[in-house]
Amino acid sequence: MAAPLGSDRTAVFCPGRPLMSDHDTDETLEDLPLDKLALDDWHRARGARMVPFAGYEMPIQYEGIVAEHNWTRQSAGLFDVSHMGQLLLSGPGLDTAVEAVLPIDLSTLKPGAQRYSLLLDEEGGVLDDLMVSRLADGSLYLVVNGATKWDDIGTLREALPDDITLNHLDEQALLALQGPKAADALARHVPEAAALTFMKFGRFTLDGHPVQIARAGYTGEDGFEISLPADAAAEIADLLCAEPEVKPIGLGARDSLRLEAGLPLYGHDMTPETSPVEAGLIFGINKRRRTQGGFPGADRIIREIADGTQRRWAGLKIEGRLPAREGAEVFSGSEKIGTVTSGGFSPTLGAPIAMAYVASGHAATGTQLEVEVRGKRLAATVSPTPFVPHRYYRGS
Amino acid sequence: MRYFTDEHEWIDVDGDVATVGITDYAQGQLGDIVFVELPAVGTKVEKGKDAAVVESVKAASDVYAPIDGEVTETNGALEEDPALVNTAPEGEGWFFRITIANAGQLEGLMDEAAYKDFVASL
């Protein structure tokens, strides 16, 4: 297989070095120099298979994608997501300046709370999706996608006034601890973190190091994202993986977990060619902003919210065992009505699942469609997402 | 006699029929296999050309025919249990059987010792 690797923007995590040949035709980033994660040696020592992703050499798997996937759903997995960009924004008039760039309502974002938002271009296309957190001193902490972080920094720097300071926290690593037993494992080291609820965060001490922990993630499970000094990452990763509930989990399972959770992947499920309304991400445009506008692409977004869109992002359950992957065409009878943007085999359901943009008239739950894979038509049914229920902790 | 290709297929020759599968190394690289698409009986395959497709959790990969021939039988067990390719790649997880159209093509393939060295060099 010609390893089509890439970034968050390209399609597939290839299992390894070229073997046979691959159907994927994504651009590769193989010619670009790759950065190493702070945990590079740590991953290799644990038997990780490393692949280029988002400009880094990253662990795609340790023992195997399905085993790691199931372990995360049943226990807890530790993911190294240090390729993502961690940014800090501060300065006078911060909220007004940021609201001119992001469709977020910062008047309702209290210290200790985190919210999903979108970086849009002037036409309302999606440049990135991101998390925005309010720190106690009023500044804002952002987590952006790895493959887009340099572009995002450029976009933000250009759009924000000069007296807003943008710090790239590139000496911070980011670990995600995800799964139903994540809270038990973490509480042995940071008892106060157990009190956090979904999309809340706090600053704590972990093994003597200052960390910022958010109760959030990208698997659909309860869990945490831990921002920590990169030079403490190996020590903390060891400490967490010494807990009997915790194993290291690679990018392969991260992708299959997020697909089951119906969570979009930037560069695949949303791009500059898709609007957040089509993508079903209206929750990323806060209510006040939907009426007041004043952010990039607002005209289109507000119009689409009122009038609807021609296509919508929808879940598909596919009959049989053959997965339909990104790029597969979706049909209603002989009419092509859509394209798969993410697809694969769901270990939890034991069946192929996919996400696709389909013409809005065919997006209702239960609609019978067909997906074409290598000339074969597979029966597919529009399915509600998440495919596997979310289990976020919202308080007892 | 069993031969190996540098594309990580094996071919086991018994008289004028050969059985084809992928190697243990290949299945290890592919990871969990969820579907195998086999050629129809009667298909004429050509050395080095697509003959089957394996789908792992993450990607679809072509499997090439090690030699020219016509498919005489396929492994129906893979339909029910594609994971046989992971658990028994060089046995029960075989893919298909073909006639040997040109026995001379076998000469360019590796034997087990040579394949082992080849994998060690990767």
UniProtKB/TrEMBL annotation, chain B:
Binds 1 lipoyl cofactor covalently. InterPro entries: 2-oxoA_DH_lipoyl-BS, Biotin_lipoyl, GCV_H, GCV_H/Fam206, GCV_H_sub, Single_hybrid_motif. It holds the Pfam family GCV_H. Gene3D superfamilies: 2.40.50.100. One of its GO terms (biological process) is glycine decarboxylation via glycine cleavage system. Keywords: Lipoyl. GO terms for cellular component: cytosol; glycine cleavage complex. Residues 17-99 form the Lipoyl-binding domain. The glycine cleavage system catalyzes the degradation of glycine. The H protein shuttles the methylamine group of glycine from the P protein to the T protein. Belongs to the GcvH family. The glycine cleavage system is composed of four proteins: P, T, L and H. This is Glycine cleavage system H protein.
